[in-house]
Every structure is written in structure tokens, then in C-alpha cells.
Amino acid sequence: MDAHKTIVLVAPADFAQLDALVSGWLPDEWMRCRWRYKACRGLDFGMITR
Q1: How far apart are CA 7 and CA 32, in angstroms?
Q2: Residue 4: predicted pLDDT
Q3: Which of 50, 19, 22, 12 shows the shortest CA–CA distance to 37?
Q4: Phi, psi angle pair for 46, to nearest 5°
């Protein structure tokens, strides 16, 4: 039997909190250019997975 998976939804108050939260698991390529997307208040998963 496969292990259960849990999805956790978070609502950081600002981009700095979001950046700190995801900095450990986002691909290095996205982390290098993350400041380019600072004006974006959401996380575009399509951008991360290409």
C-alpha cells in the first residue's frame, strides 16, 4: 500500500514570508531568478515546473 500524502495550504502575509517558506524545496533555477517575480503575489507552479 502506498504511503499517505498530505497537502498543506499556507497563506503567508507577504512575499518575504513565502520566499522563506519555499526556499528549501524549490528548484535552484527558480531560486536564482525569484526576485524577478517579486511583484507577483502568488506562486505560479507552471513557471516552476518548466
Answers
A1: 26
A2: 75
A3: 19
A4: -65, -35
The DSSP call for residue 4 is P
**How confident is the model over 1-50, as pLDDT tens digits?**
677 777 766 666 766 667 766 666 665 555 555 555 554 545 555 544 44
Q: Do residues 47 and 37 lie in contact, with contact meaning Cβ atoms separated by under 8 Å?
A: yes
33 to 22, 23, 37, 42, 43: CA distances (angstroms): 14, 12, 7, 15, 13
**Which 3-state string (H, E, C) describes 6-48?**
CCCCCCCCCHHHHHHHHCCCCCHHHHHCHHHHCCCCCCCHHHH
pTM higher than 0.70 for the full model? no
